């Protein structure tokens, strides 16, 4: 993990869930990161990384995107290279949204969803969504830049009754 003076540098966010039962529609969960400007840290995100994309400056990348939860290990992975981020950005919110294509679903209906956040093999946090079972989306983590430039992490679990697009616009609300 980054030292006390340097703060966080490269963080990995990993999402996994079990596939839906045989014959049932697939469950599609998505990692989403919103990046906020220094002059509006609780406003609208400057940009959003989701659905198999990356940030314009290449500091946040969605490396793996599953639409079913099938397979071994993690189903979605996102890398945040905070130490390379421009000084114009001081806040990043990471969350998860459930695609609502085949009817409304909540985290309480998804089998064994889990997010792990690590830096350099050190686990910063693990979330299982038990605190937001009725939500369709959840903000989980806040990364923020301190005055000296060091990036820090704060768990920030908040549920939202919103589709992925609405959640992406609202995820940074205080």
Give an account of the 3D structure.
Residues 4-163 form the TerD domain. Pfam families: TerD. This is TerD family protein. Belongs to the CAPAB/TerDEXZ family. This protein has one helix spanning 164-170; strands at 10-16, 29-37, 47-49, 60-64, 76-81, 89-98, 114-119, 122-127, 137-145, 151-160. The chain is mostly beta strands and 174 residues long. It has a single domain, classed as sav2460 like domains (Lipoxygenase-1), CATH 2.60.60.30. The strands form two sheets. A five-stranded antiparallel beta sheet has the order 4-5-1-7-8, with no helix packed on it. Strands 3-2-6-9-10 form a five-stranded antiparallel beta sheet, covered by helices on one side. It starts with 9 loop residues before the first strand and ends with a helix.
Number of domains: 1
Q: Class by helix and strand content?
A: mainly beta
Helix content: under 10%
The general outline is globular
Strand content: 35-45%
Q: For this structure, what is the CATH homologous superfamily?
A: sav2460 like domains
Low-confidence stretches: none
Number of strands: 10
The level-1 CATH class: Mainly Beta
The largest sheet has its strands arranged as: 4-5-1-7-8
CATH topology: Lipoxygenase-1
Rg over CA atoms = 15 Å
Largest sheet: 5 strands, antiparallel
What's the SSE pattern? Answer: EEEEEEEEEEH
Average residue pLDDT? 89
Proper CATH architecture: Sandwich
Number of helices: 1
Distance between the termini: 27 Å
Pfam family, one: TerD
InterPro entries: Stress/Tellurium_Resist, TerD
Protein name: TerD family protein
Domain TerD: 4-163
């Amino acid at each position: 993990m980054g030292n006390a003076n340097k703060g966080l540098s490269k963080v990995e966010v990993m999402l996994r869930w079990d596939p839906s039962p045989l014959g049932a529609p697939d469950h599609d969960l998505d990692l989403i990161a919103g990046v906020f400007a220094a002059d509006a840290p609780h406003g609208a995100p400057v940009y959003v990384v989701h659905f198999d994309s990356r940030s314009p400056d290449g500091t946040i990348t969605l490396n793996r995107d599953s639409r079913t939860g099938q397979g071994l290990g993690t189903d979605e992975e996102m890398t945040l290279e905070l130490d390379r981020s421009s000084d114009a950005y001081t806040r990043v919110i990471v969350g998860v949204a459930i695609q609502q294509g085949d009817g409304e679903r909540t985290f309480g209906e998804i089998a064994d969803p889990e997010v792990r956040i690590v830096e350099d093999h050190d686990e910063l946090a693990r979330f299982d969504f038990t605190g937001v079972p009725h939500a369709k989306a959840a903000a989980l983590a806040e990364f923020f830049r301190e005055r000296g430039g060091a990036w820090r992490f704060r768990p920030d679990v908040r549920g939202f009754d919103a589709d992925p697009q609405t959640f992406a616009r609202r995820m940074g609300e205080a």
